[in-house]
Amino acid sequence: MKSLKTLLIATLATLSLGAFAQEATIRKNLTERLPNFPTIDEVSKTPMPGLFELRINQSEIFYTDAEGNYLIQGALIDTRARANLTEQRVEKLTALAFKDLPMKDAFTLVRGNGKRKMAVFEDPNCGYCKRLHREFAKIDNVTIHVFLIPVLGDDSVDKARRVWCAKDKARTYSDWMVNNQPPASATCDTAAIERNSRLASKHGVRGTPTLIFVNDTRVPGYIAADQIEKHLAEAKP
């Protein structure tokens, strides 16, 4: 029994060293051959024999062979399960739970009793975000946590700062998004906006608006009031 245990430990150690050496080979070859390729965060095996996953920039996926001779960008499909393995992997890497949202970096729009909860990432110059706010006006008894991420240029950065520094953030923002009344000049600590941008980048929030519900459902893009109501109903605890 002891010799069997010893053999098992030795086998596992050999496999671990082999995997480490293979990863080192991939990293070395790709770094030498593609000096401008981003830093590789992780190398891991895929279900496809001989194919390895490369993770870069936290959640971007590439594939390569055991020697780093070839680089593939695209979706890996499991034809038996009819599943997009790349998409599933990215979704896992960029998952963002509602309970983990840093609410201190958001402000709230409250309608009715505010009992139902949701969050939205928005740019103040985003046309679809403005359309979304007209849909919000049709919904009652909801609290909307707004995370500003100015992605559309310098004017968006300026407006986001003015909104965040306003005495009444919610009213100032609503006046702009619904009534097209520009926010007044204001200054304050706007580190929260920078944190929001980093959070969005880390979790793959690429566009605005992006809605997140309490059951962690993420909806990218504009949706109408009836669809928002549907998601709010499905997200009830």
Keyword list:
about 240 residues, alpha+beta, Nuclear Transport Factor 2, Chain: A, Glutaredoxin, 2 domains, 4-stranded antiparallel β-sheet, 11 strands, about 20% strand, elongated
Largest sheet: 5 strands, mixed
Looking at how many chains there are and whether they match, the oligomeric state comes to single chain
CATH class category of the largest domain = Alpha Beta
Side by side, the strands of the main sheet go: 7-9-8-10-11
Alpha carbon gyration radius: 23 Å
Superfamily (CATH H level) name of the largest domain: Glutaredoxin
Mean pLDDT: 91
Kindly, what is the distance between the CA atoms of the first and last residues, rounded to a whole number of angstroms? 52 Å
Secondary-structure element sequence?
HEEEEEEHEEHEHHHEEH
Low-pLDDT windows of residues: none
Known CATH architecture of the largest domain: 3-Layer(aba) Sandwich
> How large is the share of residues in beta strands?
15-25%
Percent helix range: 40-55%
Shape call: elongated
User: How many helices in DSSP terms?
Assistant: 7
What's the number of extended β-strand segments?
11
- Fill in the CATH topology of the largest domain: Glutaredoxin
Walk me through the structure.
This protein has 7 helices and 11 strands. Strands 7-9-8-10-11 form a 5-stranded mixed beta sheet. 41% of the residues lie in helices and 20% in strands. With 237 residues, the protein is of the alpha+beta class.
